[in-house]
Amino acid sequence: QAILFGMAGMRPQLDGSLLAFPRPPAEGRVTLIGYTFRGHRIDAHMEPGYCRIDRDGSCIYEGAPKRIRVV
Hints:
The chain has one helix at 2-7, and strands at residues 10-12, 18-20, 30-37, 40-47, 50-55, 58-63, 68-69. The protein is mainly beta.
């Protein structure tokens, strides 16, 4: 839960959407693979100053960490 909701910042919304606000580690890399939300597979790859969010195997965001609508 700490990785999913803390570091990856996954936030299910009341309207059924999913937001992410990634907080990458200060050092090293963290990867979350296979989080399933409403039939979608979500992967998050994080390292200092960078994140990549994939939905169903396709990149939907790559760059500096910021709030992202995932689903």
